[in-house]
Specification:
single chain, five-stranded parallel sheet, Spore Coat Polysaccharide Biosynthesis Protein SpsA, Chain A, UDP N-Acetylglucosamine Acyltransferase, domain 1
C-alpha cells in the first residue's frame, strides 16, 4: 500500500490509460471515484448493523395491480426493453454470446427476445460487451428482424494491482488488463453511447431492463402501468428467496430509510449466516429493473457520475493462471441503483418472471415440456405440470458443458411435466420419448456410458452399470 500521503500517486497513470483507450470522461470520472475508495481502504462491505430486513407488507404484490393494465397499454409507445447481452456463457462452455444458444424449439434466446419485442410493439435495445458486439451485429444481419434493435457497448475498467494499487500490465495479452465493470455500468453506457438521449428525443421515458438469459422477463402491461402512473423513478422486481437463492443479492432497508441491494460479495464473512437466512432477508433481486429515463438523465447530469455501491472483487490478473499477479476488479450491480433514487421501490412478482439459464441444469428444465410458449410468444410454465418447482442436479463432469449436455440428450429431452426432482450421477445418455416422474435419482456406477432406452418411464431411483 502506498504511504498515506501519496495514496493516489498512480491515479494519473490510470486516467492516461483510460484516455488512451478513448473512454468517455464520465467513465473516467466514475472509475476515479471508485479508485479513491479503494486506496482509502474501502471494502464495499455492507454490515447488518447498517441495514434491517424488509417486511412483506412493505412490498407491493404484482397480483394486486391488475387495474393498471390499461395505463400500461397506453404507455407502451413510450417504453423500451433493454437486454443485457454481454455474457459469453463460459460457465456452460460457450464461446460466443449466450443469447445465441438454442434454448427452446430450436430458437435462440436472441430470436425469442426479438419476437417478444415485435409482438408487444416495443423498441428493443441490447447492451453488448466488447466480446459480443461484433458477433451480435453479424447475427442480427442474418436474422433480419423487422425492427432492428438499438445497440450499445458496456464500458471497461482497468484492473488494479493488489500489491501497490498500480495499473495492471500484461503485455502478452493486454486485453486482460481490463475488466467489465459489472452490469451496473449500464447507466453510464446508455448515457455515454448517446442511446439515452436518442430514446428521450423519441418520446421514450420508461425502460424495462433484464438479462438476456431470462425469458420470463417480458414486457408486462400492469407493471408498466403501475410504474408510469405512480411516477416512480426506479422499481426492482423481487421474488421470495428460496434455499437455492442464498448466494444471490437481497434487498434491505438502509438506516437512512432507502432500500438497498446487498450482494454476497458485499457481506462481511462473519455475517454470512444472516445473509443466507431466507426468513430474515426474504426478497431476492431478479435483476428485472424498471427505470424512468428522465430521472436517470437528471441524476447523471447533476453528479456527472453514477456512484453505485462498490464491489471490490479479488482476482488473478489472468483468470486461467492462478500464479499471475493478484488484482482488484472494481464492479457494480445494476440493482444497486435502487439506493440512488428518492422514491425507488420494489415489487413482488411471480417466480414465472424469473427463469434464468445459468447452468445446463436450468437449460434442461426450459427445453423440456415443463415450459411452453404462450400465444404472445412468452415462455410460461406448462399448465399441466404437477409441481410448480423442480430441482435438477446433473453431474457436472458429463453435463456441465453444452457440448456434453447435447450429446447425452441428442435424441430428445425427457418429459419432466410430472417430475419434482431429478439427479443424474455419472455418464448417462437418453434415447427419445423418455418420461421421468416424481423424485428420481439415476446413477451409473459402471465405467462406460449407460443408456436410458427409448420409451422408458422412470418413476423411481435407477442404478445402472
Amino acid at each position: 500500500m502506498p504511504a498515506n500521503s501519496d495514496k493516489t500517486k498512480y491515479l494519473p497513470s490510470f486516467i492516461s490509460k483510460m484516455e488512451s483507450a478513448k473512454l468517455h470522461p464520465l467513465v473516467i470520472n466514475t472509475f476515479t471515484y471508485y479508485y479513491k475508495k479503494v486506496v482509502s481502504g474501502a471494502t464495499g462491505l455492507i454490515s447488518d448493523r447498517d441495514i434491517k430486513p424488509v417486511a412483506p407488507d412493505e412490498i407491493e404484490d404484482a397480483s394486486r395491480i391488475k387495474e393498471y393494465d390499461e395505463s400500461g397499454r397506453k404507455a407502451l409507445s413510450r417504453a423500451v426493453i433493454i437486454k443485457l447481452n454481454g455474457g459469453l456463457g463460459t460457465s456452460m462452455g460457450l464461446t460466443r454470446a449466450k443469447s445465441f444458444l438454442k434454448v427452446k424449439n430450436e430458437k435462440t434466446f436472441l430470436e425469442i427476445i426479438l419476437k417478444q419485442a415485435e409482438r408487444c410493439r416495443v423498441k428493443l435495445a441490447l447492451m453488448n460487451s466488447f466480446s459480443t458486439h461484433e458477433d451480435t451485429i453479424v447475427t442480427l444481419s442474418m436474422i433480419k428482424p423487422s425492427d432492428s434493435p438499438l445497440l450499445f457497448i458496456q464500458n471497461k475498467f482497468p484492473k488494479i494491482l493488489q500489491e501497490d494499487l498500480a495499473p495492471a500490465t500484461w503485455p502478452k495479452n493486454p486485453d486482460l488488463e481490463w475488466n467489465p465493470p459489472g452490469h451496473g455500468d449500464i447507466y453510464s453506457a446508455i448515457y455515454t453511447s448517446g442511446v439515452l438521449n436518442s430514446l428521450l428525443k423519441n418520446g421514450i421515458e420508461y425502460a424495462f431492463i433484464s438479462n438476456s438469459d431470462n425469458l420470463g422477463a417480458t414486457m408486462d402491461e400492469s407493471l408498466l402501468g403501475y410504474f408510469s402512473e405512480n411516477r416512480l423513478p426506479f422499481m426492482m422486481e423481487v421474488v421470495p428467496r428460496t434455499p437455492s437463492d442464498v448466494k444471490g443479492g437481497h434487498i434491505a432497508r438502509h438506516i437512512n430509510g432507502r432500500l438497498i441491494l446487498r450482494e454476497s460479495a458485499q457481506c462481511p464473512q462473519d455475517e454470512m449466516d444472516a445473509f443466507k437466512d431466507i426468513k430474515l432477508y426474504r426478497f431476492f433481486n431478479t435483476n428485472n429493473i424498471w427505470i424512468n429515463l428522465k430521472a436517470l438523465e437528471k441524476l447523471i447530469e447533476k453528479h456527472n457520475i453514477i456512484n453505485l455501491p462498490i464491489i471490490k472483487n479479488q482476482k488473478t490478473l489472468d483468470p486461467r493462471d492462478e500464479n499471475s499477479p493478484k488484482v482488484f476488479q472494481v464492479e457494480t450491480a445494476m440493482g444497486a441503483a435502487i439506493s440512488l433514487f428518492e422514491g425507488a421501490t420494489a415489487i413482488r412478482v411471480p417466480t414465472s418472471r424469473f427463469v434464468p439459464v445459468k447452468k445446463c441444469n436450468d437449460l434442461l428444465a426450459i427445453r423440456s415440456d415443463r415450459f411452453v410458449f404462450s400465444k404472445e410468444d412468452n415462455l410460461i410454465l406448462n399448465p399441466r405440470i404437477s409441481s410448480q418447482t423442480i430441482a435438477i442436479d446433473l453431474d457436472q463432469k458429463y453435463y456441465g458443458k453444452i457440448d456434453l449436455f447435447d450429446e447425452r440428450f441428442a435424441e430428445g429431452i425427457p418429459s419432466l411435466i410430472d417430475c419434482e426432482s431429478l439427479t443424474i450421477d455419472g455418464d448417462v445418455r437418453f434415447e427419445k420419448n423418455v418420461t421421468i416422474k416424481g423424485e428420481v435419482v439415476i446413477k451409473n456406477i459402471g465405467k462406460s456410458q449407460a443408456v436410458i432406452k427409448e420409451g422408458s418411464v422412470i418413476d423411481k431411483d435407477v442404478i445402472l452399470n
